[in-house]
Amino acid sequence: MANTAGVLLDLLPIALLLLLFWGAKIKPVNDRASFASVAEELPWRGFFAIVIIVHHVAQHTSSGIVFPYFTYVGFLAVAVFFLYSGFGLMKRYLSDPQYAQWFLAKRLPKLLLPYLAVTVLFWLLYLWLENPWTLTEVAKGALTGSPIVWHSWYINVIVGFYIVFWLLMKVARGQAWVMLGGALIWYGASVVIFRQLGFGEWWYNASHILVLGMLIAVYEKPIVRVFAKFAWPVVITSVGLLFAGLNYIEANQLLSDDSAELEAVLIQMVAAVVFSIGLCALCTRISIGNAMLRFLGEYALEIYLLQGLFQFAFRSELAWIENDFSYLVTSVVATVLSAALLNLCLKPIFGVYLRSLRKITR
To answer: Where are the domains of the chain?
Structure first.
């Protein structure tokens, strides 16, 4: 069974590629002016939400020859979310002088309400397993890099960025260079702070892509023009550089060597930029999208938040799934279905909140 699980897991990259390119289309020449419309962004979010689950499951399994390499690509998948977030926020700011008004009131609840709901689910799971967290421990964990919700560091980083972005909008007065410079300072400061606090490298090895997304939004037309003209050379070069960088990290076991940790992080930072540039170039030539990817994209945030709950539950005293392939499939299915259910449950609450907010802002 172990060998069968390994073979099936090693075939996963093929399955992911089929999912990605099912329904994909080559863009006509007159449709290469942008790399990120809302319709195009959603499928990419859905695809990389699944990649992130696979990445984290790979950290808890040992089957296969190819599958373990997924442990090295999680930061690249997260970089895509940062890329689209930075791009979307900056583009909206440049087109709407009033964007700063009620920005946090509209943005933060969309993150924090699902996060609080999943926090309660994790708390209940730990309580069921007779290892309860106190409210003090939950709050302390969220502030010290060890949140009760597995992998939820992303929420901490993006909430911090939203607050900084809002402050920058207040002082920039439409000047893009102030926004970019301020965001770059935020990133540099966050790296220093996180390293001083002893947080893992995943807290900062891809978050600079938020700034890259902002930069692309500011200079979108000339950047996309270059990408569209040289798309395939850029994509091929990006793939080659990524393979070389990640292979170097794995071959030299840099992430398991404390003395080489900084070198590994710097390579990851560069790799995140290279990957993002390659993706942008690809998106000027290819449009992806199918029903499954759009469905996953709709619930990408909930998928991200809930994934750890099932990765934990299915390798705990509550339920232990020994077979690695079954563990992956069960984790993915349970996460996606629960994400859709959570979204359905929270949608009426968001609706009431947004209607109340509209009355206040009139």
So the answer is: 2-361
